[in-house]
Amino acid sequence: MSAVNLEKRRSFDQIAWNAMRYSGVLLIFLAFGHVLLQDVIVGVHRIDLDYVAMRWANWGWRMYDLFLLAFAFAHGMNGVRQVLSDFVHQERHMRAVNVALLVVWLVVTLMGAAAIFGGVRPVQ
Amino acid sequence: MQVHLKVFRFNPEIDRKPRYDRFDVQAEPTERVLDLLEMVKNYNDGTLAFRRSCAHGVCGSDAMRINGRNALACKVLLKDLNTDQVTVEPLLGMRVIKDLIVDMEPFFAHYRSVMPYLVNDEPLPEDGKERLQSPQEQERFEDTTKCILCAACTTSCPSFWASENYVGPAAIVNAHRFIYDSRDRAGAKRLAVLNQRMGVWACRTAFNCSEACPRDIQITRAIAEVKEALNR
Ligand code: HEM
Ligand code: FES
Predict the structure, then answer these.
(1) Which stretches of chain B drop beneath a pLDDT of 50?
(2) Taking every annotated instance into account, which residue ranges of this chain make up the domain 4Fe-4S ferredoxin-type (chain B) (predicted)?
(3) Which of A15, B100, B122, B151 is the least buried, fewest Cβ under 10 Å from its Cβ?
C-alpha cells in the first residue's frame, strides 16, 4: 500500500464521521458523569435553584456543563445529519441541511453558554 | 419432508404488481433452497425465473432473500432453516427484471468505480516475471480476495436501501483487496473515490453485510480498514 498517502485532503464527511467518534468518547465521561451526579447521587427532586447556585459557584462545573451541552448537542445534531442523509439525495440539498443544522447548534449552544456564564442571580 | 414454498413472482411485461405463488414440495432436509426452485421450475411452473450457474457457491449467481435473509440459494440447506415454511424473494434495492432476477448493472457500476484491478506501471522486475510479495503482505488482503460479487452484502445494507448511490460494501471490499496489496500503485485513486458522502462514510456499521456474506468475509472490518487508510 504505497501510493496511499498522496491524497491528504480530508473530506467534510470524513471530518463529520471522525467528530462522531471523538464526541462519542467525550460523552462516555460527560453524559454518564452527569447522570451519575444529578440523577443517582443528588437525585432530580433535590435539584433546585440553591443547588444550581452552589454547583455553579465552581467555574469547573460551569465548564463541565458547557462542554456537555456543546458536545452532546453537536453529537446529536451530527447524528440527525446522518439520518437526514438517508432521505436527502441531492448534494446541493444536503449542503443546505448541513448549514441549517450547524446554525441551530450554534444558536442553542450560545444560548446555553449565555445562561451558564450569566449564572444564578437572586430573584428580586 | 414437505416444504411450503412461497415464491415472489413478477413479470413487468404483463403483471401490474408482484404476487406470491405457493408450492408444496417434497424434499430431503439435506437438500438446498436452490433444489426447491429447480423442482418447481422443472415440474410445476417452467416460467419461474431465477439465476444460477455453478450451484456450488462459487459463481455468486443465486443470491436472494430466503426467509428474509440474503443468502445463496445453493448454500442454504432446508434443515438449517428450522422451519418448513420457505419464502424466497429477490434481493432488495434493485430493479426486478423477472421473479427472482434483479438488474445487477448498478451494482457492477459501483464495483467498476473503485478500479478493481491491479494497477502498476513501474517496470517489471529484473527477471521480467512476477512482482513478488511476502506471505505476510499477501495475508493483509487475503480475506477480501474471497468476494464472488453475489451482491448479498450490498443489498442487505440499510444505507444502500436508503440510496442506490451508496457505493456499497461489495465495492469497498474489492477496493480493500487492492488498496492493501503491496504491488498495487492506485490506492490513492481508489481512496479518493471512496472519500465521499456516498463512499465509505455512508457506512453506519450495521454489520448486515458481514452477516449476509456467503464467503464469510469480515466486510465491516474491511470497511473500517479503508476508513483507517483514509484517516492516516
Ligand atoms: C455514551 C455516549 C455516546 C456514545 C459513545 C455515542 C456514540 C455514537 C457513535 C459511534 C455513533 C455513530 C454510529 C455509526 O454511524 O456507525 C453514534 C450515532 C448517533 N448518536 Fe451517539 N453516542 C453517545 C451518546 C449520544 C447521545 C447523548 C445522543 C443524543 C443527543 C446521541 C445521538 C446519536 C444519533 C442521533 C446518532 C445517529 C444514528 C444513526 O446514524 O442512525 N448519541 N453515536
Ligand atoms: S449457483 Fe453459483 S453461487 Fe450459487
Answers:
(1) none
(2) 137-167
(3) B122
